[in-house]
Design a protein that fits this description.
The complex is a heterodimer of chains A (336) and B (323). Chain A has twelve helices and twelve strands. Chain A starts with 5 loop residues before the first strand and ends in an 18-residue tail after the last strand. Chain A folds into two domains: 166 residues, Rossmann fold, CATH 3.40.50; 98 residues, no CATH class. Chain A has an eight-stranded mixed β-sheet with strand order 6-7-8-3-9-10-12-11, sandwiched between helices. A four-stranded antiparallel β-sheet of chain A has the order 2-1-4-5. Chain A has 336 residues and is an alpha/beta fold. Chain B has two domains: 252 residues, P-loop containing nucleotide triphosphate hydrolases (Rossmann fold); 49 residues. Chain B has a six-stranded mixed β-sheet with strand order 6-7-8-3-9-10, sandwiched between helices. The mean pLDDT of chain B is 90. Classes of the chains: A alpha/beta (336), B alpha/beta (323). At the A-B interface, helix 6, helix 7, helix 8, helix 9 and helix 10 of A face helix 7, helix 8, helix 9, helix 10 and helix 11 of B.
């Protein structure tokens, strides 16, 4: 593998909490804490976790909508962490985003044609804008008449297609999908997932896919990182992570996925342990391993020391003292 | 006798003298203590039909036909005052957004106690004791202190626990839960659903679980009713529905959900098109524009609901009859 397309290195994002007349900083929300990830060109990388885990903050940092407190972001061999203003322009052409709610991310007063042509104009598109707009609608499965429709005249799925078309307008290499299919109806969700998959192959795209639905992430992504309270708990190839989860949090997340099979036999064989407790506040995260307050196998050591992210096998890392890092071939017994 | 009988229920929207039918003659029953799931996408009419059971339809919406019988009593014939008395006491509801369904400027305690005092005629102090019991029952530690706190002190999952405590307060016969976990995190979702189904089982309370998530239904409901475009398209035991769906829409829904035990390299096989728009006239079977099996008859004649499905060409006929 060559240089990764996107490299997130030791990135932390802290938000100050200010109070009082003088706006003195009284506390700090540690939204993202020392995260390191690398995305190869053409892969779909999933970022999963519950609310407050920092996945969206990390995505926005990659989009350079939030500045990291520490760490660096490298794109295609260039450090983009401190670029600003016009210097960011080329980066913004190569990186695009698709958001969760197409109703609030599209301007309600603009027709689809305008929404798409605006992006092209801002970035001084050289060719014929009208042709390009129709071409964009077409690759997203919408007929040309959509040029003249307002967002409210479309269904949720159609709106998301316009959102995707807008993301594709400048032929980006990396697309950050923040809960891109979460707000859609089940039948529509599947259509959009298929569209995203087709586009990735057709246009050789790289995805950073943020989601909370594990079955969607597993389906769409080649590799997955699990986040909890700002930290990466585990990362592995998609198949490997779900077949052989190492971190107790990953295991709990997988167990919580409702399986559409009411067969009592299939049910009985499942480890049916729903995770107790609540997600602690990122304002005041637990000491040591942030997961220890909810962990079924927490030891004394976990309350004091932060477990480092260590290789379990090749391309599989977990941050847990209970997983024994072994060299080469391991067949662990704690699958589901 | 079933606890709840909904018969031929139709609901229409009246807007400036123009009528749009949103729910089209649906019928279903809920037995005492059982969990029934109603599944459908947006616009299927699943929430409207349950709001009408609660007597909470908005002004512009009216029931145009049918009966809703709770324990032998026709709820539609009751005055709004009589209906208000039934709510909380005989039937109660848990909504999707625990953030918006609790009053932000009143303590949790006063909101739970209100329901107890109102419906059971308890004194202040007796209501307080009962409120503490209820909070403990829904798994809240330090219940006494929690009673004095406001909704913003609680996380989403905790607020939903409070809502469940309020719903259970007067020991109703029926609880309707409309997407109770959709706004919650995955691990909290599992906690809440397990809690809700366990408490309903213990109290002998019937539960109607309205959801768009087929996965949830599988684990927690015995029977499932699938709605599409304001009609019931399929109903039956959860096991049958999952293994041998009869309606092409149910089959499509099942195929649309990615599963953890599936080969990831296979593309999903979603239903084509968009959910039926209630403002658009669709003749015959409302699913026909999206149905892969549609024949001319589907465009012309509305299929009757027979043997568990409303379809001219039901699937899995032989295997279902054999079982």
């Amino acid at each position: 593998m060559g240089t990764p397309l996107l490299r997130i290195e030791d990135v932390s994002v802290h938000f100050p909490v200010r109070k009082g007349l003088l706006q003195r900083q009284v506390a700090e929300v540690r939204a993202v804490e020392k995260v390191t990830l690398a995305l190869q060109k053409g892969e779909a990388f999933g970022l999963v976790g519950e609310s407050g885990c920092g996945k969206t903050t990390l995505a926005r940092t990659v989009l350079r909508l939030i500045d990291p407190t520490e760490g660096e972001i490298w794109f295609d061999g260039q450090n983009i962490t401190s670029l600003s203003g016009n210097a960011l322009f080329p980066y913004r052409e190569r990186v695009a985003a698709i958001f969760q709610d197409p109703f609030s991310s599209l301007n309600p007063r603009q027709k689809a044609g305008r929404i798409l042509s605006e992006v092209l104009q801002v970035h001084r598109y050289k060719g014929d804008i009208r042709t390009r707009v129709e071409e964009l609608l077409n690759i997203c499965g919408l007929p040309p008449r959509f040029v003249d429709l307002y967002p409210h005249q479309m269904s949720g799925g159609q709106r998301q297609r316009v959102g995707i078309a807008r993301a594709l307008a400048l032929e980006p290499e990396l697309i950050v999908c923040d809960e891109a299919v979460s707000a859609l109806d089940v039948s529509i969700q599947a259509q959009i997932i298929n569209l995203l998959e087709d586009l990735r192959v057709k246009l050789n795209l790289t995805y950073l896919f943020i989601g909370h639905d594990l079955s969607v992430v597993r389906h769409l992504c080649d590799r997955v990182a699990v986040m909890y309270l700002g930290r990466v708990m585990e990362t592995a190839g998609s198949e490997e992570l779900f077949a052989n989860p190492q971190h107790p949090y990953t295991r709990a997340l997988i167990d919580a996925v409702p399986d559409p099979d009411p067969d009592p036999l299939a049910e009985a064989t499942r480890a049916h342990s729903s995770l107790g407790g609540e997600i602690p506040s990122p304002l005041n995260p637990p000491s040591g391993c942030v997961f220890h307050t909810r962990c079924p196998i927490a030891m004394e050591r976990c309350t004091a020391e932060i477990p480092p992210l260590e290789s379990v096998t090749k391309a599989h890392e977990a941050a847990c003292f209970a997983t024994t890092p072994t060299t080469e071939t391991t067949t662990t017994t704690n699958g589901r | 006798m079933p606890l709840l009988v909904v018969e031929n229920l139709s609901i229409s929207l009246f807007d400036e003298g123009h009528e749009t039918q949103l729910v089209d003659r649906i019928s279903y029953q809920v037995e005492q203590g059982e969990t029934l799931a109603i599944v459908g996408e947006s616009g299927s009419g699943k929430s409207l039909s349950s709001l009408s059971v609660m007597g909470l339809l908005a002004k512009e919406l009216r029931v145009t036909s049918g009966r809703i019988m709770l324990d032998g009593e026709d709820l539609l014939s009751l005055s709004s005052e009589e209906m208000r008395q039934r709510r909380g006491r005989d039937l109660s509801m848990v909504f999707q957004e625990p953030m918006t369904s609790l009053n932000p400027v009143r303590t949790i305690g006063s909101q739970i106690m209100e329901s107890i005092e109102e419906n059971l005629g308890f004194s202040r102090s007796a209501a307080r004791t009962r409120a503490i019991e209820l909070l403990q029952e829904v798994g809240m530690a330090d219940a006494e202190r929690r009673l004095r706190q406001y909704p913003h002190h609680f996380s989403g999952g905790m607020r939903q626990r409070v809502m469940i405590a309020i719903a259970l307060a007067a020991n109703p016969k029926l609880i309707i839960a409309d997407e109770p976990t959709t706004a919650l995190d995955v691990t909290i979702q599992a906690q809440i659903l397990e809690l809700m189904t366990r408490l309903c089982r213990e109290h002998g309370t019937a539960l109607v679980l309205i959801t768009h998530n087929l996965g949830i239904v599988a684990r927690y409901a015995q029977r499932v009713t699938v709605m599409y475009g304001g009609r019931i398209v399929e109903a039956g035991r959860a096991v049958d529905l999952y293994h041998r769906p009869r309606h092409p829409y149910t089959e499509g829904l099942l195929r649309s959900v990615p599963r953890l035990d599936q080969d990831r390299t296979q593309p999903l096989r979603p239903i084509q098109g968009s959910p039926a728009d209630p403002f658009m006239k669709i003749t015959g079977c409302r699913f026909h524009p999206r149905c892969p099996y549609a024949a001319p008859v589907c465009r012309e004649t509305k299929p009757a609901f027979e043997a568990g499905a409303a379809c001219h060409f039901p699937l899995n006929q032989e295997s279902r009859d054999a079982s």
